[in-house]
Design goal:
The protein is of the alpha+beta class. It contains 10 helices and 19 strands.
Length: 395
């Protein structure tokens, strides 16, 4: 078996292989060329695993994204996706070899972070990825949707999805630069209608909130049989979020509103007069994180608390183990190798879970994944983020 990089000429083979791996059939092409999940693939970042006779049996690819870290730091990140192996070739080491090849390739490119969305929670931990952001669904019966306090609604305009691309792109870009865990949506994704709604041309309405002439928030939604389902509410202002939520709850012909993507710790629950009005379901991991260069990753993100900690980081998949002294002063970090006794011993996958501040080190200590020599409270204080990380971009 060999792993090789692809070119544009390999697109049909790549798509045929990954669809077969997932037991899916290719979508019918859009007459206007948009709306296909694979339309934004970067074939120069894609891989094929082939047998000795040249038959493609596995695929993997990466998107060139930007990721926002704590401290409003925006950095490049490789978005790993379309990872699949034909059913006839599973349990033969194909996936392991592709992951090893891909991580090496990312390092050669000088990349220090990679992220993915995991189709199965038990797969990617062994390759060094750990869940780093979480999301949940909230369903609210309209009859129970009264708010505890008056909401400043502002000016809201409803547009069809086809007329709202520029506004959505503008608002989303402002939002993602201040939200830890958010991925950038490259312009070509908007232009191609790649990914999932609301990126695609699928029928949606877009409620645009404005402060004067400036759009400062939007909600994309669809109404079917009395259920108004919101793909996402995008804004940097909690008051604007409340106004868009209120708009949805006051919509005619609606019996319930489903918020598909609610961040952990979001104040929406507290906005209702009845705290139990929002029924949470579908709580799940979303963005998984992999550190490829630990010192660079730790010194790039912002930090809220000064202090120092010694981390003993094991990376069994890449057969590496290093001990680092992380020192934070005035929000800036320094990370060097050390022989000092560790405060925490952890797998690189667990460091990925801690990295954005969405998982407390003490939680993983209690779970038995991380060994703390002394109290984990210092690590909790260091790794926390000003706001919970959240990602709602699908790729």
């Amino acid at each position: 078996m060999q792993i090789r990089s692809t070119t544009a000429q390999d697109l049909d083979v790549f798509l045929g292989t990954v669809h077969t791996a997932f037991g899916r059939f290719p979508e019918t092409p859009d007459p206007d060329g948009g709306g296909l999940w694979w339309s934004a693939l970067e074939m120069d970042r894609s891989l094929l695993a082939e047998t000795e006779d040249g038959k493609a049996v596995g695929t993997a690819t990466a998107y060139s994204f930007e990721l926002t870290l704590p401290g409003d730091v925006v950095v490049p990140a490789a978005g790993i996706t379309a990872v699949g192996v034909l059913p006839t070739h599973r349990r033969q080491g194909v996936l392991t070899e592709m992951m090893r090849y891909q991580l090496g390739e990312l390092r050669e490119r000088g990349e220090f972070l990679s992220v993915l969305l995991s189709s199965e929670g038990g797969i990617y931990g062994r390759f060094g990825y750990g869940p780093a952001t979480y999301t949940r669904r909230m369903t609210v019966q309209r009859s129970q949707g009264a708010f505890r306090t008056q909401v400043r609604t502002g000016a809201i305009e409803v547009l069809p999805r086809s007329e709202a691309t520029d506004v959505m792109e503008q608002v989303y870009d402002r939002y993602r630069r201040t939200q830890p865990g958010a991925l950038g949506r490259p312009h070509r994704w908007w232009a191609l209608g790649a990914g999932m709604p609301p990126m695609t041309p699928a029928p949606r309405y877009v409620a645009v909130h404005r402060d004067g002439d400036q759009p400062d928030g939007y909600a994309t939604y669809v109404l079917d049989s009395g259920t108004l389902t919101i793909d996402e509410i995008i804004t940097t202002d909690d008051a604007v979020f409340a106004a868009l939520a209120r708009f949805a709850l006051d919509h005619d012909l609606v019996t319930e509103v489903v918020f598909k993507q609610v961040p952990t710790g979001h104040p929406l629950h507290w906005m209702f007069a009845d705290f139990n009005a929002g029924q949470v379901s579908g709580e799940m991991d979303w963005l998984w994180m992999r550190l490829l260069d630990v010192p660079r990753a730790l010194t790039t993100r912002g930090w809220l608390t000064d202090g120092e900690i010694v981390l003993d980081v094991d990376d069994p998949f890449l057969q590496e183990r290093h001990r680092y002294l992380l020192t934070v002063e005035n929000g800036m970090a320094e990370c060097v190798e050390t022989t000092r006794d560790p405060d925490l011993e952890l797998d690189v996958r667990d460091l990925g879970s801690l990295y954005l501040g969405g998982t407390a080190p003490s939680t993983l200590v209690r779970a038995g994944h991380v060994t703390a020599h002394g109290s984990a409270a210092k690590a909790d204080a260091l790794f926390r983020s000003e706001r919970p990380p959240h990602c709602l971009h699908w790729f």
